[in-house]
């Protein structure tokens, strides 16, 4: 309110100053004669002096009457011309008073509309006029008053259950995995598998609980990837909100690996959510320029950093998007990859032969189908080839390796990742 009063007062003062000037000139031009003697020009004074001198010359007899008359006519003519020029300089050039009043009203409307319209376009109507220190204090207050992970999860829609396309035998295996973890809660392999596959089913709360238990079991051996993976599960469980508990996971990850890219991405998102676009911009700008363009967060950061820069008061143009297709990446933001690993196979050793084979085959088919229809990262292609080699299906592993060579032909680093797995499986030439 104070801001609008100040702007209104300044606009009104400007209008009044212009009105006073225009209306005063209009009054002068309405026909009233100015008071006092008109100021004479220097030429007029000279000519008047010449007339007086002419009279004195006639009186002294130095000039005849006829000569004096001719000179008087010429001097008078010059005096009248000088007077005409002087009056032209002094005459007001204003329009009539009525026209001035109309124009003054139009100008007043234009000034007021322009002032408020310009602010409406360039400013932020309704936003508080806050200094930097107060903004930081409000941001800190907002951050400290955030709801907890449990509070946000309680407000989220309940898990609707596994997707309809999930195979029945796969769901039975996951249920068996849940029971196994319940019986052996300190088994890191079982917890890792449970967190991974609960997330694959969309059961994010169960996944983050399993991952949290895994981090507790690992203790000091927990890695930055473990903490980022847990933070990612927490963020997904709250629909994108970064809770204090998720922030703690990100801090733990950055303490172990300060340059961890996904941890920096989520930390920037945390700052953006809590009124610190300046800090979010610095983090995301570093990530964006560091790359690579194939990173799972790169497109998201590039699409949002322009708005973030504007809020941070920065003039910034993000790097151009790649002109050629990037190497395929996994659609999930999970650090962990879908599909069976050697550990998955090892964890299935306590099952009977039939169940173990069914579980491994189900995982293989699920990953293979997704890679064929949606694509995936080089690591996932490598994983599929490795597992096919482990189960002895070298013919299919060879076919997958051939397909991967065509897919990653323009990406040497990605192809090297897949080649290493193919060589390990004994299918690379």
Q: Which percent band covers the strand fraction?
A: under 5%
User: Could you give the order of the helices and strands?
Assistant: HHHHHHHHHHHHHHHHHHH
Number of strands: 0
Largest sheet, strands/sense/barrel: none
Describe this structure in words.
- The protein is mainly α and 429 residues long.
- It has 19 helices and no strands.
- The longest helix has 27 residues.
- The protein starts with a helix and ends with a helix.
- About 7% of the residues have low confidence.
What can be said about this structure in brief?
This protein has 429 residues and is mostly helical. It contains 19 helices and no strands. The protein has helices spanning 2-28, 42-60, 65-90, 97-122, 132-144, 149-155, 168-183, 188-200, 204-218, 224-237, 244-256, 261-273, 277-290, 298-312, 342-347, 353-373, 378-390, 394-407, 412-425.
Structural features:
single chain; elongated; mainly alpha; 429 residues
Provide the fold topology.
Layout (H helix, E strand, L loop, with lengths): L1 H27 L13 H19 L4 H26 L6 H26 L9 H13 L4 H7 L12 H16 L4 H13 L3 H15 L5 H14 L6 H13 L4 H13 L3 H14 L7 H15 L29 H6 L5 H21 L4 H13 L3 H14 L4 H14 L4
Helix pairs in contact: 1-4, 2-3, 7-8, 8-9, 9-10, 10-11, 11-12, 12-13, 13-14, 16-17, 17-18, 17-19, 18-19
């Amino acid at each position: 309110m104070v801001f609008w009063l100040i702007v209104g007062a300044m606009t009104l003062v400007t209008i009044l100053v212009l009105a006073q000037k225009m209306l005063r000139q209009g009054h002068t031009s309405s026909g009233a004669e100015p008071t006092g003697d008109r100021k004479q020009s220097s030429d007029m004074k000279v000519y008047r002096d010449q007339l007086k001198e002419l009279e004195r010359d006639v009186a002294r007899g130095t000039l005849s009457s006829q000569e004096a008359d001719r000179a008087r006519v010429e001097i008078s003519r010059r005096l009248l011309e000088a007077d005409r020029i002087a009056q032209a300089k002094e005459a007001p050039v204003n329009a009539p008073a009525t026209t001035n009043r109309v124009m003054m009203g139009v100008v007043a409307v234009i000034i007021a509309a322009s002032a408020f319209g310009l602010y409406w376009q360039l400013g932020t109507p309704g936003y508080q006029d806050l200094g930097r220190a107060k903004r930081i204090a409000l941001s800190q207050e907002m951050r400290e008053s955030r709801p907890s992970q449990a509070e946000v999860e309680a407000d989220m829609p309940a898990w609707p259950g596994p997707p309809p396309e999930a195979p029945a035998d796969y769901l039975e295996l996951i249920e068996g995995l849940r029971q196994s973890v319940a019986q052996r809660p300190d088994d890191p392999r079982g917890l890792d598998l449970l967190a991974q596959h609960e997330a694959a089913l969309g059961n994010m709360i169960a996944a983050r609980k399993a991952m949290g238990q895994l981090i507790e079991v690992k203790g000091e051996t927990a890695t930055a990837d473990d903490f980022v993976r847990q933070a990612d599960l927490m963020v997904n469980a709250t629909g994108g909100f970064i809770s204090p508990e998720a922030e703690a996971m990100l801090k733990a990850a950055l303490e172990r690996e300060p340059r961890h890219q996904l941890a920096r991405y989520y930390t920037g998102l945390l700052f953006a959510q809590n009124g610190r676009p300046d800090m979010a911009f610095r983090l995301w700008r570093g990530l964006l320029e560091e790359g690579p363009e194939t990173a799972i967060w790169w497109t998201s950061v590039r699409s949002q950093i322009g708005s973030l820069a504007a809020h941070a008061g920065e003039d910034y143009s993000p790097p151009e998007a790649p002109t050629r297709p990037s190497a395929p990446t996994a659609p999930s933001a999970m650090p962990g990859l879908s599909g069976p690993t050697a550990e998955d196979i090892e964890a299935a050793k306590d099952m009977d032969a039939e169940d173990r084979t069914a579980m491994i085959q189900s995982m293989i088919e699920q990953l293979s189908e997704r890679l064929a229809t949606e694509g995936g990262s080089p690591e996932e292609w490598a994983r599929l080839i490795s597992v096919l080699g482990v189960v002895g299906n070298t013919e299919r592993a060879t076919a997958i390796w051939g397909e991967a060579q065509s897919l990653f032909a323009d990406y040497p680093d990605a192809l090297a990742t897949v080649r290493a797995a193919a060589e390990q499986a004994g299918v690379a030439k």
